[in-house]
Structures are given as structure tokens and as C-alpha cells.
Write a structure and sequence with these properties.
Length: 388
Amino acid sequence: MTLDVPAPVRDRIGALARHADTALPAYLIDLDGLRAHAGGIRAALPERVEFWYAAKANAQAPVLRGLAGIVDGYEVASGGELRHVRQTLPGARVAFGGPGKTEAELAAGLGQQVERFHVESPHELRLLGRTARRLGATADVLLRLNLPVGTAGAALSMAGPFGLDPGLLEECRSVLAGHPELRLRGIHAHLASGLEAPAQVALAARILRHAAGHREVNVGGGMAVDYGRPAERFDWAGYGVGLGRLLPPGTTVRIEPGRAVTAYCGWYATRVLDVRHSGGAAYAVLAGGTHHLRTPVAKGHDQPFVVLPADHWPWSWQRPEARQMPVTLVGQLCTPKDVLARAVPVVRIRAGDVVAFGMAGAYAWNISHRDFLMHPPPAFHYLGREGA
Ligand SMILES: *Cc1c(COP(=O)(O)O)cnc(C)c1O
């Protein structure tokens, strides 16, 4: 596992570690790194392909603003995300997806210039049509298709509660026929998460085949992020070339990745409180834990990390440590599930050292059960510039 900490992140963690015990744990968001990475994605895609960001991966305002001018728009998955994105970036293009939209959320979307509604069922289409009629509004719709996908290689398949079986399209057509306030713009599909570029290209080809004749197709997100190989990146160049070969003339094609855009810009840095040896295994107990960074528990992986040695040790007794052995990194929660990385070989880790976890920029703080045990929340530091 090789994890390179960018110099600005390393410097800031060093400064925080020297500052005060309460300065850690902290999240550091590398906005320059984010913008460079997202700019690389944009450059790898065919010019005609629109690059939208799925805000639920990380909707922190500086992150959303950092992506402005690079992404074409933001996909929101709730009324709360819609309000937040609108407040943060009033003029941004917004699409509204998500499996359980309420009438109030649909009404909010109609009142807030949502550019596309990704509709998941005939009922939702009827509800949107009725709400639009009541408000004297119109709605532009993509129907979210649920195609059976071979799930080999995918971390998560979206089969099941999401989207419409192709057999339901007929019913949707008749709803649309009765609702002039609904304009069908095309097809949406987000079928799997964690696919590498060749599988994503093959998936896009299938979606585009099913969507033949539609003027607009959103082929979704789910581009792979490999937490076991932090130096690797999804092959955006290969994906861009593959997608470029598929583009039907006159059709607008969109992608809406989340994780693969923001995972790499986030760092969670914390202090080793204690090192224990128990039952032949070594445990480093860290300040904070999975109530700040739930990603490794949610995904079932070891969160990649580096140990940053800190030489200051204020106590008169011997410093607890582990050397040249596998160490399990746990947090402060009273549950054996509070594990950030399991039995990972380390050269040396001591109480008082700092640990920096990488790949903590997507589905990290925002999915964490932050109130469990009432430890203080981490601080947030945004490094670099939000805009060009
Ligand atoms: C979550 C989600 C995405 C983004 O998925 P990632 O795996 O983060 O790329 C895109 N579209 C929809 C509809 C989603 O629910």
C-alpha cells in the first residue's frame, strides 16, 4: 500500500499536530488536488459528453464550489441536497434523482429550476405531473431505467428498488401522454458501482442501445475507486475513448460520478492515543474513529493510511508502541466494529504519533454516525483555492 501525502496536506497536518492536542482529529480537503483531478477527468472525456457530479458523495460547500466551472452540473438526491446546492451555487445546473421523492420535494424542485427530474416509477411520474399541473409549472424528465446487469466486478448493483423495469415504459408513455406539463427528454441509468473502465464502457453501450431514439441519455456514475491501491485511478482516458466511439449523433450523453471525483481529495488525520498488545495482536487506539470516517466499515476495506512520526512525548514512562508487525487501527467507540484498518503491517507506530488516512473525500464524514458516544466532531480545513 503506497499512499503519497501531498506536501500541502502533510505540512498542514504537521502544523496541526504541533498546535494543540485538540487540533486533531481533523479532515483536510485538498481543493487544488480536487480541481486538478476533476480537470483531468473533464479533459479525458469527449467534448460532447457532459460531466455532472453526484453531490451525495461529498456536498461540502467548498467542494461544490471547487468543482464549479469544471463540471457541467450537480445531481442531487433529496430536497435537502437541492436546497443546499441552490444556496451554495445559485446558478448551477441541477438534476434531481433519488428513489423516494415526496410531493413536497417535487414541488421544491419545480420551484427551483431543476433542469432534469430523474423519475423512478409510474407513480412518481404521475405525482410529478399532478404537482406540476397544480403549480402551473413544467418538468423535464429522464426516465430512470433499471436494466439487468451482470454484476461481476461491481461493488454494488442498483438492481431492485431503483428505477423502472423496461416493461414499465409503456405505462410511463401513457402517463406522459396525459400530462403536457411533463416533457420526456430521455433516459437515465445508474446501474452499478465500482466498475472499471472497460466494464463501464460496455455498460454505457448497453444503456445507449436501450435508449436508442432518445435525444438525451445519462449513463450514471459508479466509476471504480480501489481503496486497496491508493495510487491507482479509474482509467478516465480509456473510458473517454471508449465512450467517444459510442456516441450516437445528435444525442446528449451525460455521466454523473461521485466517489471517483472526490474520494482522493479528502484526508482524515488523527493522533494515536495508545498502543496495546492483546491476544498476540497489536492495536493502535486513535482519537476519533468510524463515527468520523465510516467509509472502511461501510465498504469493508482497510482505509489506506500513513504514520507520521511525532517525537514529542510528554510523559515520564515508556511510550507504548508496535514495531515491524501487523497493527489494527481502531477508534474510540465502545464497539469491536470501530475498525479503520485491520492487521496492516507497519514499521513502527507509537502513542503520540499522527496517522493520516487518505481517500477520505467521498462517502466519509457525511455517512458517519457522528453523534454516537458524543466525542467532539473533527475540525475541517480546506487547503488551496476553491476557484480558478
Ligand atoms: C450515488 C449515485 C451516483 C454516484 O455514484 P458513485 O458511485 O459515487 O459514482 C450517480 N447517480 C445516482 C443516481 C446515484 O444514486
